[in-house]
Specification:
By secondary structure, the protein is of the alpha+beta class. 38% of the residues lie in helices and 21% in strands. The protein has a three-stranded antiparallel sheet.
């Protein structure tokens, strides 16, 4: 398994977009991503560095594995 440290919010959002998620808008400092056919919306904080727990929760909510996410970076 790869490392999830030192990934910014914009890098994470780009990886989710590559996985088929669409930018819906932004609320404050959080980018909202949606995907057709998925009931969950992802709210990605646009911080310089995301905490590992937050990133893991976003990956889990998206239905991907950590390995799949790291391949998209």
């Amino acid at each position: 398994m790869g490392r999830l440290a030192n990934i910014s919010g914009s890098e994470a959002a780009k990886a989710f977009v590559r996985a088929g998620w669409h930018r819906e808008g932004q609320v404050g400092s959080h980018l909202v991503l949606t995907k057709p056919g998925v009931r969950v919306n992802l709210s990605v904080p646009q911080h310089r560095e995301l905490s590992v727990g937050t990133l893991r929760a976003l990956i889990r909510a998206s239905g991907m594995t950590v390995e799949d996410f790291l391949k998209l970076l």
